[in-house]
Design goal:
about 170 residues, alpha/beta, seven-stranded parallel sheet, two-stranded antiparallel sheet, 9 strands, about 20% strand, globular
Length: about 170
């Protein structure tokens, strides 16, 4: 049974978890505690702002070991940065999600590793609940106003604080 999506209201309360010594860990500490380099694939649709936002997300995740790759095969995290203005935007997202689902299942089967799938941007903002309902294998859905919270959302989605799905579409 899939975990229920976690509603994030955009509060400024820090996410905390206790480390082995009982010390509280921030989302940043929980993510950066993993020394391995992780592969990040970002697919961007739409305007120049989305291109900028994709670079911004990559920059935000870089200190936590995520490095961009050119294909989703073998990626540890895939972000679809979407544009709702484009023709058939939602359909394109679901088509791509279907392909990514296969990569996610293959990675889990062969490597035993988890691939995070995230939908960001305008389609995520407008269709967040629908995406989580129709594509239960999607780990995170978040709007453009929440990119600064990406490390916290990744920490939650990677089970650093227990198995949860993340939806964050607040302005």
């Amino acid at each position: 049974m899939d975990a229920e999506p976690e509603r994030h209201t955009g509060t400024t309360d820090p996410v905390e978890n206790k480390g082995a010594a009982g010390n509280k860990l921030s989302a940043s500490a929980a993510l950066s505690a993993t020394p391995n380099t992780k592969k990040l694939y970002i697919r961007t649709w739409g305007c120049q702002m989305n291109v900028y936002d994709s670079r911004r997300m990559s920059d935000i995740l870089a200190p936590f070991g995520y490095q961009e790759v050119d294909t989703p095969e073998g990626a540890d995290m895939v972000i679809l940065n979407t544009c709702h203005i484009r023709e058939k935007a939602t359909e394109k997202v679901f088509s791509e999600l279907g392909r990514l689902r296969e990569h996610k299942e293959e990675k889990a089967k062969h490597d035993g590793d988890k691939m995070l799938i995230a939908v960001a941007g305008c389609v995520a903002q407008a269709e967040g609940d629908f995406i989580m309902e129709r594509a239960p294998y999607v780990d995170m859905v978040f709007g453009p106003q929440t990119y600064h919270e990406l490390p916290e959302m990744v920490a939650k989605a990677t089970d650093a604080y227990g198995p949860k799905r993340v939806i964050n579409t607040e302005f």
